Amino acid sequence: MDGVTDAAFRYITAKYGHPSVIFTEFIPVEGVCRGVMRLMDDFKYNEIERPIVAQVFGSNPESFYKVSFLVAALGFNGIDINMGCPDKSVSLKQGAGAGLILKPQLAKEIIRGCQSGIDDFAKGKMLADVGLPPVLLQYIQEGRGGEVPIGERVKIPVSVKTRLGFDSVIIKDWIKDLLEAQPAVITVHGRTLKQMYRGSADWDAIAQSAEIAKGSETLILGNGDINDYQEALRKIEQYGVDGVLIGRTAFGNPWIFNENISLHPTEERLKVMVEQAKYFSQVLKNKPFINMRKNFGWYCRGFTGAPQLRESLMEAVRIDEVELIVDKFFSELSNS
To answer: Residue 13: inside a domain, yes or no?
Structure first.
């Protein structure tokens, strides 16, 4: 989720939620291939996040080839191609994200480009021979401060995240197109691009995807409107998918992935919020601290004094300010 699942969000989710797999924000392959170095922050991860999958987007198969090679070299456990983002700047202007639903041939070329990049990495081709910008290669060769290891020469899986269609449900034909390229996994969000996030996810259409993929080596995951762990299990059993992805329900609630646990006491939630803010300030020094504010809003809900605390935290621009505000909240709470 762009602007959400940064290194700090994922670290906290992995530490307290222990999901079966975790994904990065989606990263533009064309930007990486141009040497936009700020994007390298999006490839940062901690070992506790494993298995960790890098999600990328774009519309140029050659760029996907190069970036898939890079993702494998950085030690990720998989690469996921975003073919579901509904944002107009991505889908319409760039022809990426959900825009690829209108271009099935290009979508297959992109999947195969990633598969080729990963194959070449596994066979021993050198990163310097892929055609990535020299500034990026230098950054990698300097070891990134030991934050990211160089991956073993293994084939990592290529997966796809997509939607039911562009402006109408065409999932039957669209899934068949994608299956021709044999991705390891296809995740289907139960809405079209036109719906954005409005209305309810169509799990019957997701079930059709799972039925079509039966007999192939491709796993089908469902996504959309999953509110707790038990509902996730029900969706898997009822609709015949191989698993589910949880997105927005995890905002401010990393425990969502734990069985029988959906919401923790206020004090623990706020301590974890501060821990996430600390990690953000330590690891993502090139990103503005105000990026954390959306997280403050998600954590501060459903308890007495939440609106006032949230309002105070929206003014914070440093981690020490966050700590002072939360300490004051706890002090006032204990004296009330």
So the answer is: no
